[in-house]
């Protein structure tokens, strides 16, 4: 253990081979869904079970093969938004529903029943312009705007829902005998990753068994789709029928491959579809690993008047997530501006940045000491180059212990900041989520005492390797951890800080060197006893939230915070800025940054930029 603490960590630990990351063929829930859906299992809505109240319409949906009921809920939301939730009707225990991303509980509008029989149900808003047509068998939902079907849900029959199961070790003999008819051979379980999933040297143990979900959406007349960052890909989303699906799974992929659909540093499970006269949005509120398949094909349509063959495209979008529930918002537009307003009403608008943050930022890995900072600052003045902010990376700390200063390199950080202040310049320093394992480090000792770290499924503190060596990871999903972390930015606590010091959150995917895909094991345990697999993509979101709140508290609410984050999720725009991650500083990366940034823009994150490594010059 001691050797691990002192082990030298270098950039090579982050510059990993892309082969350590999965493609779709290596993802068990993707294989299961593709295999099962090929067998055309269908769901039926039981419309005699409909319950309507002021906020929602609820009914059962049942799988014809398993006969296990699901509960579907349809909501009308102010601003021409529909919400569809599908969950187990009686799960063994609650399934994870993403908290804190929505700015508030959406205001609902009453949906009126326009037509109803045993085979269908039509719901409409009070104006009657938007209708939700539910077909019972097979289960399908059509969104109708001004008598035109603009979107169909489950048209392809790809609704998929794996129910929570009793762990194998806890089952009775009778339950095991009842399951004997199913193909539960050891080889089949391993192939499908039902209770364990192996990748390279890692084994993901699944206490609750398989829990994935999926649903398809058909967009009529649409062939131009955008969104679902982050990928080093074109702005317009491409067909995935000939290759991998788009993956949403926050990962530390230094030197990521260009023109690739694999997930990198952040995820926003939101896409837009646009055609002449209408724009739509689909916001899939799920923070587990998610895959999105897109297929656009022309569809023959006969014009009864002209009696000629026309071609109208249809794009099918298939969402698949490893866990959680189906919770999807359908933004009906009809204009791009309307869709942007609808999405921001759910997840918030971009935080107004402090004025200085719109200027030039000078950052590299690494400015060595106070003299280095002073020399760089003087160099800009000498060459008459304006700049507003200088940044310090991990080497400014005492042995990569965050909220500290290296006493030899930065003996008087407050004086250094005063020199910058005299020129109306600011300082940004790094603060990562991993905390060096060191009983003499007060931050580690306090967090350990309070139980503030992510835990292993055996119950101990999760430990992984990152820049400080052996580290523990703060559990930002815990409100008490976020409150405590925010308090660390107070001047009385963060010694050597001043009001011109701002923050940069890095490595918060979270990055775990030598972990599975450079990140945390999926069966690590968070606040509320939730597994990491349920909330992986919002881990960094929570760190940025806590950091921004800390800077607001520090100024007693008088100054806007500046927090840059590498990992992000839907709603991260409320807390600050985002950058596109670490690349290899080639012209090809500069070129791909344009569609990457545009994609962030249309999904609500307008304060974003590119960084070139190894110098991390922010653009």
Report on the structure:
- There is one protein chain.
- The protein has 619 residues and is α+β, with helices and mostly antiparallel strands.
- Helices cover 19% and strands 29% of the residues.
- A hairpin with a 4-residue loop joins β34 (611-612) and β35.
- α6 packs parallel to α7 and α9 packs across α11.
- Mean pLDDT is 92; it is low at 1-5.
Topology:
Blueprint: H1 2-6, H2 28-37, E1 43-52, E2 56-63, E3 69-77, E4 81-88, E5 108-109, E6 112-116, E7 120-124, E8 130-135, E9 140-145, E10 148-153, E11 160-161, H3 173-178, H4 186-192, E12 196-199, E13 202-205, E14 213-220, E15 224-227, E16 246-248, E17 270-275, E18 278-284, E19 290-303, E20 308-321, E21 326-331, H5 336-347, E22 361-362, H6 370-382, E23 389-392, H7 413-422, E24 426-430, E25 434-436, H8 442-450, E26 463-466, E27 469-473, H9 479-487, E28 501-505, E29 525-526, E30 530-531, H10 532-535, H11 539-554, E31 563-565, E32 577-579, H12 587-602, E33 608-609, E34 611-612, E35 617-618
Helix pairs in contact: 6-7, 9-11
| Average pLDDT score | 92
Report strand %. Answer: 25-35%
Assembly state: single chain
Distance between the termini: 41 Å
Rg: 26 Å
Give the CA-based shape.
Answer: globular
Low-confidence stretches: 1-5
The class by helix and strand makeup works out as alpha+beta
Number of distinct beta strands:
35
Number of helices: 12
Helical coverage, percent range:
10-25%
Task: State the major sheet.
Answer: 10 strands, antiparallel
């Amino acid at each position: 253990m001691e050797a691990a603490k002192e082990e030298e960590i270098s950039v090579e630990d982050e510059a990993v081979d892309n082969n350590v990351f999965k493609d779709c063929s290596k993802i068990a829930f993707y294989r299961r869904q593709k295999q099962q859906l090929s067998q055309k299992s269908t769901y039926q809505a039981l419309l005699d079970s409909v319950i309507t109240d002021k906020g929602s319409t609820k009914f059962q949906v049942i799988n014809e093969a398993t006969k296990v009921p699901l509960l579907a809920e349809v909501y009308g939301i102010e601003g021409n938004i529909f919400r569809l939730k599908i969950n187990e009707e009686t799960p063994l225990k609650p399934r994870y529903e993403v908290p804190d991303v929505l700015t508030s509980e959406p205001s609902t509008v009453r949906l009126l029943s326009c037509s109803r029989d045993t085979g269908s149900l039509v719901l409409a808003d009070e104006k009657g312009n938007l209708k939700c047509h539910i077909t019972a068998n097979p289960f399908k939902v059509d969104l109708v705007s001004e008598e035109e079907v603009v979107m169909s849900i489950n048209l392809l029959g790809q609704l998929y829902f794996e129910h929570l199961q009793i762990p194998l070790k806890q089952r009775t003999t009778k339950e095991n005998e009842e399951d004997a008819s199913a193909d539960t051979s050891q080889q089949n379980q391993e192939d499908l990753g039902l209770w364990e999933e192996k990748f390279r040297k890692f084994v993901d143990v699944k206490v609750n068994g398989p829990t994935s979900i999926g649903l398809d959406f058909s967009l009529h007349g649409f062939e131009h789709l955008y969104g679902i960052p982050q990928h080093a890909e074109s702005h317009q989303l491409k067909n995935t029928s000939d290759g991998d699906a788009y993956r949403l799974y926050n990962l530390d992929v230094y030197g990521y491959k260009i023109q690739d659909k694999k997930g990198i540093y952040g995820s926003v499970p939101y896409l837009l579809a646009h055609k002449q006269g209408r724009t739509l949005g689909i916001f899939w509120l799920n923070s587990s690993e998610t895959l999105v398949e897109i297929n656009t094909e022309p569809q023959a349509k006969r014009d009864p008047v002209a009696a000629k063959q026309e071609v109208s495209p249809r794009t099918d979008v298939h969402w698949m997530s490893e866990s959680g529930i189906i919770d999807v918002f359908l933004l009906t537009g009809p204009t791009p501006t309307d869709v942007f307003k609808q999405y921001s009403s759910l997840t918030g608008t971009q935080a107004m940045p402090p004025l200085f943050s719109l200027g030039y930022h000078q950052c590299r890995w690494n400015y060595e000491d106070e003299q280095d900072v002073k020399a760089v600052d003087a160099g800009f003045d000498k060459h008459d180059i304006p700049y507003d902010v200088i940044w310090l990376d991990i080497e400014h700390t005492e042995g990569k212990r965050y909220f500290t200063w290296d006493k030899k390199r930065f003996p008087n950080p407050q004086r250094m900041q005063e020199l910058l202040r005299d020129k109306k310049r600011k300082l940004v320093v790094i603060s990562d989520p991993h905390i060096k394992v060191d009983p003499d480090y007060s931050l580690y000792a306090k967090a350990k005492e309070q139980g503030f770290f992510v835990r292993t499924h055996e119950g101990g503190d999760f430990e992984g390797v990152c820049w400080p060596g052996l580290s523990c990871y703060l559990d930002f999903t815990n409100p008490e951890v976020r409150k405590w972390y925010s308090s660390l930015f107070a001047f009385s606590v963060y010694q050597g800080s001043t009001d011109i010091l701002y923050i940069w959150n890095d490595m918060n995917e979270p990055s775990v060197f030598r972990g599975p895909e450079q990140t945390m094991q999926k069966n690590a345990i968070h606040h509320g006893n939730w597994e990491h697999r349920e909330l992986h993509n919002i881990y960094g979101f929570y760190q940025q939230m806590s950091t921004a709140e800390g800077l607001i508290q520090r100024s007693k609410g008088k100054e806007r915070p500046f927090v840059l984050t590498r990992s992000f999720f839907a709603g991260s725009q409320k807390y600050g800025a985002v950058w596109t991650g670490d690349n290899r500083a080639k012209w090809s990366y500069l070129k791909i940054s344009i569609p990457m940034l545009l994609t962030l823009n249309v999904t609500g994150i307008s304060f974003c930029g590119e960084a070139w490594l190894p110098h991390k010059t922010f653009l």
